[in-house]
Structure formats: structure tokens, C-alpha cells
Amino acid sequence: MARGESGSTPEFSVFHVNGEQKSSARKQIIRWFRDASEALITNARCLTEGIDVPAVDMVAFIDPRRSRADIAQATGRAMRKPGGSNKQVGYVAIPLFLDRRSGETLEEALERSEFDEVADVLNAMQEQDEDLVQIIRELQEAKGRGEIFDPRRLSEKIEVLGPSIELSALRSNIFAEIVDRIGVSWDEWYGRLALYKDREGHCSVPAKYKTPDGYRLGSWVSAQRLAQDKLSDERRGRLDTLGFVWNPHDTDWETGFSYLKRYNRREGHCVVPQGHKENGYRLGSWVSAQRLKKDRLSPERRQRLDELGFVWDALEASWDEGFAHLKLYKEREDHCRVPRGHKENGFPLDQWISVQRAKKDKLLPERRQRLDELGFVWDAREAAWEEGFRHLKLYKEREGHCRVPVSHQENGFP
């Protein structure tokens, strides 16, 4: 077919226009194309902005396009819906040529392929298609969360046609490459932060924290704080919805609170010893600091601590710490007759018990009741007698009699 002329098959018309034709000739060919029931028109860089071309069912980019304006103009023609038309879908075709070497799989050939042409067209389409933007964002977030890539979501917008052999795996690889090329890395980082939130229950990421696969999530979080005033309202809103902590001082508090929650789950209380470290974090010091700053803490933070069972009085905390150790001893030994000199996990439990006996008449009724319910022995002499009797029972069970040699000690008891 001569350049600028039209051709046809029995039911399909074919046309071509280019920039060297006279304007009147191009307009006539375009009218023929518009009036045809089924037709194809090719062009050489002349159907750009300002040229009246009817809405079409499909635009194909046979040669690479770099101008985003040209791409947007061309895709817009496929997406346009003429008045009175029942058109529901417009198509944009982008050829992807794979240079497949001998013995190479399609997936291997795909890894060496340039996706620039595909990425350029899809990036331009994102400016006109909010659904495509949202799909790419969701897939980027899912990747950041470490989820297995699911190409089905993208197939709502993109279809891969090609050889039937290995097409399923090839389609998945192409979709994954598309997401990497046209997706925004911010969304992937947001997905990593969402995964951290799901696992830890908060967004207070330590500054030097790295994800298990080596990504510096702490640095990214710090960068969002520094760029707080420059972030778009949409991104700030998404971070706020996730519970993002904008003030680094808040991060320090949240870190201590998260360790206290962990301690409470394990120990059943919030009475943390002064020198205690939780996974290297000085939790005992953090707890003491909260008591000192009690009147300066925000109502929201005080409420969160109260809900956890936080003990604000240092003296009360000391009493509760001793009681907690006595409970541990009772659960293990089945009695409260603590030997002289005994320490429970480093806590001088025998001394604490001696103090409770000496202050018996001054103790709060609530505390006395808690000790009574535990089986506390108030009389030191009675406690000594019970301790001796218990050791004698052990001796009798083992030896079958009570004739104990004068110098004998039973488990250190004389």
C-alpha cells in the first residue's frame, strides 16, 4: 500500500497518516477512518495534541515513546467514551520483546529485558486512572509487608498475551516487574512499617532498627519526621491512621512502655526492680522516671499506665515486689516458711518477711489480708518450729525413724 493511501480487506479497513502529508489529505483519511465500522490507522508522530481524532477502541505503541504528554494524549483517545456509545473498556497495547538465548527460560530472558517502554506508558496512564494508582500502591505496601506477590489484583487492569508455554509464570514476573518500575518506593516502605506495627503493636521504630531482610526502617521513619511539613496530606494521613509517632521523645516513651507491657505479660505485674534490664533496655530506670514525672505526664499516658496496673508509689512498689516474690516462693514450695538468708531471684525475701512481721500492727488491712490469704506465718518462732518440723518429716520419710544425730543438718537446717 502506498504511503498515505488506504487499503482494506473485505470487512476491515486499514489507513496510514504521517507528518509529510498535506493537512487536507490527512483530514480526509481520518474521516474515512472515523466512518469505517472496523478499521486500523497507523501514524508516524502526527496524531498528537490538537489533531482531531475520533475515540478508538485501542491504541498500540509499536515504537517506544518517551514524551509523557504524547503518551497521555494517545492513551486518552483509547479511554475516551463517545457520546451515545455503549463502550465500556479501552485498550492500550504495548509490545514487550524478549531476546531469548539458547537454553534460556522466558523468566531468565525477562530479567534481561528493558521495561522502560512499558513503564513510561503505564506511568502516564496513572495520571488518568486512579484505580491503577490504588492497585499499584496496594501491591507496593504488600511487598513491604513481606507478603507473597499476588498478580491477580493487577490483572484487573493489565493483561499479558503471548505464547502459551510458561505464560502463567511469565505473567507473574511481568506484573512484579511492572510494580517495581511504576510503583512508588514510599508505599513499599509504608508496607514495611505496617508489618512492624502488626508485629510490635506500635510505630515507635528505634532509629537504628533494621528489618530482618536488612532494610533500615528506623532511618526511613526518622526521615518522615524530618520531612513532616513537606509530606503530602495524603501521606501524612496514612501515617496518622497507622499510629505514627511524629515526636522522637514520644518514641522513647513508647519504647519503654512496650518493654513494660512485655514484662507485665511475663511476670503478671508492673513492679519492676530498680536495676532490671529488659533485653538490654533499662526498664527499671524508665519505671522510676515515670513515678518522678507523674504530675507532668499527659492524661493519656497516665491512663495507659493505670490500665496496665502501674504502681506509682515507690514504697508501695517495694512492698508489691516483695509480695510478688513471696507468691513465686509459695507456688514453688507450697508454703510461706522462707529460710533465713533466702533470696528469691536476688531479692532478699527473708528480710522483707521480717519487716512485715515487725510492722504487723501498722500494715494496711488490705495488705494483711493478702498475706493471710497466701498462708503467711506471722510468728517468727512458730515459723522456726514449723520449719524444723518440716525438715524432721523429710528425715522420717527417708530414714523411717526420728532418731536424728545431734550434728545432723537436713538440707542445711540444723
Structural summary, described in words:
Helix 2 (68-79) crosses helix 4 (116-126) and helix 5 (130-144) crosses helix 7 (185-200). The mean pLDDT is 78. This protein has helices at 23-35, 68-79, 106-111, 116-126, 130-144, 167-182, 185-200, 217-226, 233-242, 248-267, 283-292, 299-308, 314-333, 349-358, 365-374, 380-399; strands spanning 7-9, 12-18, 39-44, 58-60, 91-93. It is mainly α and 414 residues long. It has 16 helices and five strands. Among the domains are: 187-246, no CATH class; 249-312, no CATH class; 315-378, no CATH class; 389-414, no CATH class. The protein starts with 6 loop residues before the first strand and ends in a 15-residue tail after the last helix. The strands form two sheets. The chain has a three-stranded mixed sheet with strand order 1-2-3, with helices on one face. The chain has a two-stranded parallel sheet with strand order 4-5.
Low-confidence stretches: none
**How far is it from the N-terminal to the C-terminal residue, by CA?**
117 Å
Tally of individual helices = 16
User: Whole-number radius of gyration?
Assistant: 38 Å
Please write the string of helix (H) and strand (E) elements.
EEHEEHEHHHHHHHHHHHHHH
Helix content: 40-55%
Please give the order of strands in the largest beta sheet. 1-2-3
Strand content: 5-15%
Class of secondary structure makeup? mainly alpha
Label the overall shape.
elongated
Count of extended strands: 5
Main pleated sheet: 3 strands, mixed
Mean pLDDT: 78
